[in-house]
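Single-chain item
Fold in token form
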Amino acid sequence: MKLIFCGTPRFALPTLEKLIEEQFDIELVVTKPDEPAGRGHELTASPVKQAAHQHRLLIFQPEKLNHPATRTFLSTFYVEAIVVAAYGYILPQWMLELAPLGCINLHASLLPKYRGAAPIPWAIIRGEKETGVTTMRLDRGMDTGDILLSRAEPIYSEDTAETLSMRLSLPGAELMVETLRGLERGAIQPCPQDNPRASYAPRLRKEDGRIDWSLESEEIWRRVRGLNPWPGAFSTFRGKLLHIWTASFACESLPGVAPGTLILAENRLEVACRVGHLILGEVQLEGRKRLSAFDFARGARIKPGEKLGI
């Protein structure tokens, strides 16, 4: 089967590698343009582009899919399907109609739950116990196309958005191969989504990482996990940003202690919440390296009653 593959981040890599391993004929890899990264802001190729180079695949990095030159170029490829895995751009209608089997997308949720750009972080933040991967045929809506196949995966208490993304990418790759083989045989019946059951996972913003200490400790703990690695959960300490990379929580409230108050208890650093308290693991003060919270507290000489978020 001849394919065009569209993808950009690490999540898409296992799917690309699996398609190559299963001897699908990838005529073209489409990925986002190189972006500045690191302190030097040097242009850096996406993980998918780097892998495509290693496999000597033809690469295309359009800035706009709706540009006439882009349409002309992609229309020269006669493929049976376009595979999409975390590409990062919305495909125009003409591209949805380019291949006989359509554009087959790998989405990191059990649709119709968590349509949108950030299904993995929001599933953790909202306390889901299970998520999964779904293959679907793209249409003009936001993840509204017919479902082809899906596979469930548990969310563990130690999962972050990063670890869950990497774990989902592996069954996702297998599911994509199974989907393409099934479509080729005519063995898959597309299933319309149950739209009233849909929920949404909007694109993350930097400000989503700011911790509101008036929330319950368990909810804050889920945000710490769901926003790792980006944008990261953060608060402020003495006027500087303090990223909280790992934490655990306790349901017991600290009587008479205002939310956001730091408590140095034996060998750990805790923060009072509206209900319960957060036990900080690894933290990172703006311009400094990551430290255990206890080492940070000793170095900062935390004062009694000192608060985060002010």
